[in-house]
């Protein structure tokens, strides 16, 4: 008789080891609230009380009464132990305890009372024996039950293995298949780690010499039908490197993709090396993309969930503190505008998307810059690659990976598509990777030379089957349309050697762009100086060009910051060389002159404000205003003595933020685009001691090692007073 696949198991909550042990103990214990000593003491107390009361003349309890009760209890205990097939020790222990305490009570009644030394000694010995034997009895019971459970499980696995051997013979006409192992799936829920999914099992086996995996691949739907799997569940086949005849069948018994799975809302910090979370497979495991080394293509018709899948990928990219995202959108920037809105409105300190191109000219600017950066990065980071013993540029907050996301690739000109192809061909070693998105996977949308470089391939539901065949190859065995019944379903492949797997993309809510942009602003990296120097004018003026283009309302109101984090100011003509003798009353040109000129203008405005409020200026208020405006201003000499080094100033700026207690090493390293060892070494040179234990330096931050505000301020004062000499070269780039 054929043994069918067991019924699907419901997802259950994950429990800790201690909770499982406590539950097992409660299940197996016949006295839930008592330990061995307390249980024995309670039985002895009951016997002592019965003998004391029964020996009273007014009561006159017959001697045979306790013995009769004990006999009945012993008989019931033995019958129950035998019926449940408990081990011999348990069969003897339980009846023996009944007989022992009941017999002592009868003996005490026969002696006229329980209070003789001999009787109390016998009772005490019975308590000790009962307490000591009980754990041994329980251990035997547990071992017996474990053996029984293991035997039942082994029999079920054997029956299931035989059932699949017969099923493969019957459905695929392959005789002689041997199933070697069956493993159940127990995976954490992708959005709720406390929940465990038991969604199916894996069947591992070996085919006979005359058969191949093609026969299994052709009959996956028939195998699922023969096993009578629940709706939405199926069978997937994978080969193993052990041999060409070894295989694994992934059997779903619970449809893990039935319900929409939302993207996790914690937005914790990640790295590009951790993988880019984007969906869930049939077995309940999460799907991640290797976007550090591989180019990616995303295909999906209107209504397929392509926008939600792109939003999930974007959220995962922005959570990485070693990734910079650039965006290309020929449809006006609508895909990337929600990620920039918090920055434009002042709710985020940095733009989530570092560069956005919405017109042909800006797209050429971006792609030309990226192509030029390939060799610059590889040459500029030769020493870094040598240190890591690699031929590719490693990613960090100081040297971020550049991810170029292109939406609506079909609308791009042939010249732009060719540049994307060149970028995909050449930029892997420089840690620059493209991702292209399109409604259709046809050569008009994504040319074949560009498609050939895409290793990560995601195909959601399409209107034409040929799109998926073009994407995954005409020889690929693809699931039927009935297995992708709803928005978000699709196929994914991470390498040409793999077969496409059915998955469902994580659903990112429409407001997730706003949330992730705000949540990750504090660790958004800046583009490294080596890359900026490729074409500094093009890069630094990118937001100025966006403001003039007018595609992002409100952009012109944003205040600028370092490296174009805000809109770049209009380019100024070169200043003439300063004469040797600057006339009295004028300010020398250059950065120092700009600073002093701005300082004087601020003082004049403040004085005018004070004079408007009063009949005349108050000297003390004017002095206080001047002190406030000049606080922190240092005009060091040419050797740099007396000026605050960059590393210390960056730490002071972080410590001055609202609610901050100091500055973490990782935040200083991110701000300066240095490594943490460099920050620590240069802080030691300035005699600033790092706290030995991690601290939360501002609200909501995770504990990190760093420096207190007080220690930083002391170092600053010592430098300005001349007490501490600043080492030469401390401001040099890493």
Structure in words:
The chain is an alpha/beta fold and 734 residues long. It has 4 domains: 31-150; 162-252, Threonyl-tRNA Synthetase, Chain A, domain 2 (2-Layer Sandwich), CATH 3.30.980; 272-564, Rossmann fold (3-Layer(aba) Sandwich); 639-734. The chain has 24 helices and 19 strands. It has a 10-stranded mixed sheet. Strands 2-5-7-6 form a 4-stranded antiparallel sheet. Helix 8 runs parallel beside helix 15, helix 9 crosses helix 15 (512-519) and helix 21 (646-655) packs across helix 24 (709-721). The longest helix has 56 residues, at 117-172. It is flat, with a radius of gyration of 38 Å. ATP binds at residues 300-307.
Descriptive terms for the model:
single chain; 734 residues; alpha/beta; Rossmann fold; 4 domains; ten-stranded mixed sheet; 43% helix; flat; disordered N terminus; P-loop_NTPase
Number of domains: 4
Gyration radius, in Å: 38 Å
The biggest beta sheet, please? 10 strands, mixed
What is the CATH third-level topology name of the largest domain?
Rossmann fold
Write the CATH homologous superfamily of the largest domain.
Answer: P-loop containing nucleotide triphosphate hydrolases
Indicate the CATH class of the largest domain: Alpha Beta
- Approximate strand percentage: 5-15%
Strand order of the largest sheet: 9-8-17-16-15-10-14-13-11-12
Helix content: 40-55%
Low-confidence stretches: 1-14, 28-33, 557-563, 566-600, 629-641
Mean pLDDT comes to 79
Assembly state: single chain
Tell me the number of strands.
19
Counting helices, strands and paired strands, the structural category is alpha/beta
Instruction: Tell me the number of helical segments per DSSP (H or I, 4 or more residues long).
Output: 24
Query: How would you sum up the global shape?
Result: flat
CATH architecture of the largest domain: 3-Layer(aba) Sandwich
Distance between the termini: 73 Å
């Amino acid at each position: 008789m054929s043994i069918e696949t067991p019924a699907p198991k419901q997802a259950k909550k994950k429990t800790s080891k201690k909770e499982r042990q406590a539950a097992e103990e409660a299940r197996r214990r016949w006295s839930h609230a008592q330990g061995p000593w307390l249980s024995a003491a309670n039985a002895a107390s009951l016997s002592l009380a019965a003998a004391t009361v029964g020996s009273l003349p007014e009561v006159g309890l017959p001697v045979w009464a306790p013995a009769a009760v004990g006999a009945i209890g012993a008989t019931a205990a033995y019958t129950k132990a035998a019926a449940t097939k408990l081990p011999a020790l348990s069969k003897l222990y339980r009846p023996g305890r009944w007989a022992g305490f009941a017999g002592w009570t009868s003996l005490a009644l026969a002696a006229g009372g329980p209070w003789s030394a001999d009787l109390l000694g016998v009772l005490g010995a019975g308590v000790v024996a009962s307490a000591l034997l009980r754990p041994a009895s329980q251990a035997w019971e547990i071992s017996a039950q474990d053996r029984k459970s293991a035997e039942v499980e082994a029999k079920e696995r054997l029956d299931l293995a035989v059932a699949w051997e017969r099923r493969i013979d019957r459905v695929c006409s392959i005789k002689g298949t041997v199933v070697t192992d069956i493993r159940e799936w127990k995976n954490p829920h992708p959005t709720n780690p406390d929940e465990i999914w038991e969604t199916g099992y894996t069947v591992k086996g070996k085919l006979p010499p005359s058969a191949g995996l093609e026969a299994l691949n052709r009959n996956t739907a028939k195998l699922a039908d023969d096993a009578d799997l629940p709706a939405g569940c199926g069978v997937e086949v994978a080969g193993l490197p052990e041999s060409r005849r070894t295989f694994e069948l992934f059997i779903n018994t619970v449809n893990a993709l039935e319900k929409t799975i939302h993207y996790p809302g914690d937005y914790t910090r990640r790295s590009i090396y951790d993988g880019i979370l984007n969906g869930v497979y049939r077995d309940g495991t999460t799907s991640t993309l290797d976007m550090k080394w591989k180019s990616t293509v995303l295909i999906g018709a209107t209504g397929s969930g392509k926008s939600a899948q792109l939003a999930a990928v974007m959220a995962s990219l922005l959570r990485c503190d070693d990734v910079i995202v650039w965006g290309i959108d020929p449809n006006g920037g609508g895909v990337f505008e929600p990620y920039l809105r918090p920055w434009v409105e002042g709710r985020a300190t940095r733009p989530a998307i570092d560069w956005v191109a919405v017109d042909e000219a800006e797209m050429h600017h971006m792609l030309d810059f990226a192509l030029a950066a390939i060799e610059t990065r590889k040459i500029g980071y030769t020493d870094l690659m040598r240190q890591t013993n690699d031929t590719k540029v490693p990613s960090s907050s100081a040297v971020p990976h550049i991810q170029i996301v292109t939406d609506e690739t079909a609308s791009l000109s042939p010249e732009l598509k060719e540049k994307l192809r060149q970028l995909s061909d050449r930029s892997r070693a420089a840690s620059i990777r493209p991702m292209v998105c399109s409604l259709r996977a046809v050569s008009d949308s994504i040319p074949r030379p560009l498609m050939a470089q895409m290793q990560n391939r995601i195909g959601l539901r399409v209107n034409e089957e040929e799109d998926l065949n073009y994407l995954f190859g005409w020889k690929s065995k693809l699931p039927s349309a009935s297995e992708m019944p709803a928005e978000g379903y699709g196929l994914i492949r991470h390498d040409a050697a793999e077969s496409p797997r059915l998955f469902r993309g994580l659903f990112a809510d429409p407001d997730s762009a706003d949330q992730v942009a705000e949540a990750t602003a504090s660790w958004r990296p800046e583009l490294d100086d080596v890359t900026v120097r490729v074409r500094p004018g093009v890069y630094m003026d990118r937001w100025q060009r966006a403001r003039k283009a007018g595609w992002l309302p409100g952009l012109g109101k944003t205040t600028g910051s370092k490296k174009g984090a805000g809109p770049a100011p209009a380019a100024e003509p070169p200043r003439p060389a300063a004469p040797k003798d600057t006339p009295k009353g004028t300010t020398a040109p250059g950065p120092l002159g700009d600073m002093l000129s701005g300082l004087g203008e601020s003082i004049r405005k403040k004085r005018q404000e004070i004079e408007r409020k009063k009949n005349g200026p108050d000297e003390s208020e004017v002095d206080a205003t001047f002190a406030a405006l000049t606080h922190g201003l240092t005009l060091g000499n040419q050797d740099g003595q007396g000026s605050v080094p960059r590393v210390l100033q960056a730490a002071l700026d972080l410590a001055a933020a609202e609610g901050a207690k100091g500055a973490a090493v990782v935040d200083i390293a991110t701000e300066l685009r240095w490594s943490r060892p460099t920050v620590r070494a240069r802080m030691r040179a300035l005699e600033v001691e790092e706290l030995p234990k991690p601290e939360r330096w501002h609200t909501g931050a995770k504990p990190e090692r760093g420096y207190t505000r007080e220690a930083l301020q002391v170092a600053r004062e010592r430098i300005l007073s001349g007490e501490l000499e600043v080492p030469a070269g401390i401001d040099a780039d890493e």
